Amino acid sequence: MSLIITFLGKGGIGRTTIAIATAKKLASLGERVLLVGQDPSPAFSLVLGITPEAEPQEIAANLSAVQLHTTVLLEKSWEEVKQLEAQYLRSPILKNVYGQELGILPGMDQALALNAIRQYDQSQKYDVIVYDGSGDLNSLRMWGTPEILDWYIRRFRGVFQESDIVKALSPFVQPVTSAVLNVSWTADSFAPEQANQATQLLSKGKQALADPQRLISYLVTTPEQVAIATAKYYWGSAQQIGLTVGGVILNQAEISDSLSTEFNPLTITAVPSIDSGDWQPLIDALPNFRRSTDAPKPTTIEMNERKIRVFLPGLDKKQVKLTQYGPEVTVEAGDQRRNITLPPAWSGRSVTGAKFQNGYLELTIG
Description:
The protein has 366 residues and is α/β, with parallel strands linked by helices. It starts with a strand and ends with a strand. Among the domains are: 154-202, no CATH class; 299-365, Immunoglobulin-like, CATH 2.60.40. The protein has helices at 15-28, 43-48, 70-88, 108-122, 137-143, 145-162, 164-181, 192-210, 225-241, 257-262, 280-285; strands spanning 3-8, 33-37, 57-60, 63-67, 128-132, 215-221, 245-251, 268-271, 299-302, 307-311, 320-325, 328-333, 336-341, 351-357, 360-365.
């Protein structure tokens, strides 16, 4: 399994440069590194000094690079989808649709990138994968996909199973699909073992997201107030999906007391600019990415006190909204939603109090 490192921050502050320097640093330490570029513009290639291919290629000792192209990934993934459909259904209907004719829809870039990173991770060829993505909410939603999909599957599976309408219509589904789609769908058309594989895949994704030894992000900022505010906002948003932020990388500036206060308790590392193409000073200044982090946990459940503490740095109480449906509490903050399932011991209980203080949302369960 690989350690996956990604970076968050405002555009134009040097995230790509930091990502490339990180890959160079870890490769020089003997780690097998894959640098993954998401930006389709020439910026990634210009900073790297090489134009990577759509498949990983070695560009230096222990260092490989790949430029993700959504159209290429879509064609490849479409073939995999058709293979999966053949496993799920006895009468596939997608076999005559070809990946080369498919257009790109919003959100496909992140979904296909996540799948590609998963495959690179599973290949066991790399100790570290450095991902240079958009570094914004789109990236965060990409990393939160396993958690979100798992929730949708669990939630809607239960809804459909309990629905009287679905139960009433189910005897008519098979003849209608046979007449309209010329396929025969019955309850045993779906292979349970394949559904279990999908559930296990999502479970592994959720475990990786919650483990800073598997996936970790770093904030990149400059002393500019907009860059600082953006980094703090992404910090709180990362907490919403359970992604650990391991520290702050301050680009081309010195650390001030006010900056230390802004990002407390995270460690801030100041790095210099690249002078005349010499990467070494920047590489030497980067933090130890293999160091275990003591970053605050996104969510803490205190059973004895019947409290839930959610760490939401960079946000204020006006940006936080709570709702509860049954055993799940939904926290909406930073344009992100997170569903927290109450422990079985609190079954039937509800949130009776909430306060926001020092970056923490504290919920009291009655």
